[in-house]
Amino acid sequence: MFDFLSNYDDPSLLGAFWVTVQLTVFSAVGSLIWGTLLAAMRVSPVPLMRGFGTAYVNIVRNIPLTVIIVFTSLGLADIFGVTMGAPDNFETKYFRLAVLGLVAYTAAFVCEAIRSGINTVPVGQAEAARALGLSFSQVLRLVVLPQAFRSVIGPLANVLIALTKNTTVAATIGVAEAALLMKEMIENEAQTLLIGAVFAFGFVVLTLPTGLFLNWLSKRLAVKR
Amino acid sequence: MTSVLYDAPGPKAKRRNLILSVVFFVLLALLLWWVWTVLDDKGQLEWSLWKPFTTSDAWTTYLLPGLADTLKAAGLAMVIALPLGAVLGIARLSDHRWVRVPAGAVVEFFRAIPVLLLMLFANEFFARSTDVSSADRPLYAVVTGLVLYNASVLAEVVRAGILALPKGQSEAAQAIGLRKSQTMGSILLPQAVTVMLPAIVSQLVVIVKDTALGGVMLGFTELLNSRGTLAANYANVIPSFIVVAVIFIVLNFILTSFASWLEARLRRSKRSTGAVLGADDVDDLNAGEVGGTLGTGAEK
User: Fold this and answer.
1) Among residues A32, A206, A147, A213, which one has the least CA distance to residue B117?
2) Residues of B with CB below 8 A from A61's CB?
3) Is B125 part of a structural domain of the chain?
4) Could you tell me the mean pLDDT of each successive run of 10 residues in chain B, 300 residues long?
């Protein structure tokens, strides 16, 4: 029944899902960093940074991810010559471009999640920190963000799950991840339903445990008030 | 909260903020300058590449038909997904285990799968098992994929909308002797529709954005796909990307603003029960679908 799987070596089924996992992990780390920076900008005392953060979030959130990913290939790579340190290796180049696009897009949602987390920290916490004479960056680093991150695990988990699903968009620029392999298989093999079920199962396996674990974690780490 | 994080700036803080502003401004300017020079080098700034957008030809041949297809797919998907989502959402609230559990399984299953997989599968299914013409197939596949995914998200919206109503509503309905179906049909659902209206509009943004996926992967002639044809004709990669991105931003910004306006209006209104399912609430229900379901993002 699963004979057809042996026709696909490069990438194999597991190989393709491994690329999906890699895309997810790299983009998650990148967007967490960039998203946190954006959130810090949006609450900073510098008006220009605040304006930039707000504009970035509102613009990026309203553009389809597909447009961004396709642009990284046709615009960034072809016109701007951004090759992400791999001008000759197409596989690496498009993989990294896809990560860049996913980071740029997902960071906007990470930023909003963290900002809403900052808003859940009681005003008294920041006031007490300021009363001690801490500076803005100390207030943010030592008092507000540690609490905000704990209350933000739930929303961030949702962003991570969505990111896992969004990595399939990388198929549009030819990154050999799960969705692209599925497209190839489903067009060439007779077992349409079986192939659909196999790939659907793969994503359920990827997203369901992540969601359950992070939900458990967010309940465990929630700041009891 | 923003202002609570820092004191009113004194002389030292003012100087520091000014330095930060200048540094940040210089960095931004450098980035923009780099973008500008590259575009200039590659000849992307030449007027001949931008001129097509001032003529009616580019709009009537490429962009407007593309936009029409985007809106058609999004509209169809919403119109079909809404009743389906309502049925699934109500089924999940059923008192009977054999209705509740399968409905829950269907909803959780389709929320866990990328919408692209659903589109690809639907496309192949229509190609093999139906006689949908190959010209119509991309539209059918895109709408089917979007319906399957969004029906399950809307099911959660409907469920949350009904649960957000005060308990007294269903208790009062029972007290005057209405049956369960009557309670749902004439008391809970009509009020829940108002409660979840902002959430539904927000979900429309997600749908509009997802149509672009069908344009690249299935050759559905929506806006992003038409951009490809247009750029092939006028050789204006960057201008066409900018124009298409702006169209998407304006369209989605209007939808997001409309949702926020609806939410604010419903929160104020005296006739409702005061329960509103805002965009932020749906963000969590959306199984993390990263889709613009948040508010306007204005400074708070």
Assistant:
1) A206
2) 252, 292, 294, 297
3) yes
4) 68 89 95 93 86 86 92 95 94 92 92 93 92 90 95 92 90 93 91 89 93 92 92 88 94 92 83 67 48 28
ipTM of this predicted structure = 0.89
Tell me the residue range of the domain where B144 lies: 52-285
Of the candidates A43, A48, A105, which has its C-beta nearest B21's C-beta?
A48
Contact call for B237 and A74, based on CB within 8 A: yes
Residue B17 at interface with chain A, using a CB cutoff of 8 Å? yes
Which CATH number goes with the domain that contains A28? 1.10.3720.10
CA–CA separation, A184 and A8 (whole Å): 10
Q: What distance in Å separates the CA atoms of residue A31 and residue A112, rounded to the nearest whole number?
A: 12
Closest residue to A63, CB basis, from B245, B288, B289: B245
Burial class from Cβ neighbours inside 10 Å (0-12, 13-18, 19+) for residue B100 reads middle
- The answer to the question of residue B164 being in a domain is yes
A67, B248: Cβ pair inside 8 Å? yes
Domain carrying residue A180: 3-221
Give the number of domains in chain A. 1
Sequence-distant contacts of B264-268: CB under 8 A, at least 24 apart: B266/B194, B266/B195, B266/B197, B266/B198
CATH number at residue B103: 1.10.3720.10
Residues found in chain A: 225
Q: Measured between CB atoms, does B58 come within 8 Å of chain A?
A: no
Which helix (H) or strand (E) segment holds residue B248: the answer is helix B237-268
> DSSP code of A29?
H
* Residue A173: CB atoms within 10 Å: 22
Which residues 38-57 of B are in CB contact (within 8 Å) with A? 38-39, 42, 44
3-class SS at B276? coil
Please give the Cα distance from B135 to B122 (Å, whole number).
15
Dist. CA A187–CA A175, nearest whole Å: 18
Residue B6 to residue A127, Cβ atoms within 8 A: no
Quick check: is B240 in a domain?
yes
Q: Does B12 touch chain A (CB under 8 A)?
A: no
Number of domains in chain B: 1
B contact test, residue of A63, A137, A204 with most B CBs within 10 A: A63
Residue contact A54–B297, C-beta within 8 A: yes
Distances (CA, A) of B167 to A111, B94, B171, B193, B195: 35, 16, 6, 16, 14
Convert the pLDDT of each residue in A109-168 to its tens digit: 999 998 888 888 888 898 899 899 888 788 888 998 888 888 888 889 989 999 999 999
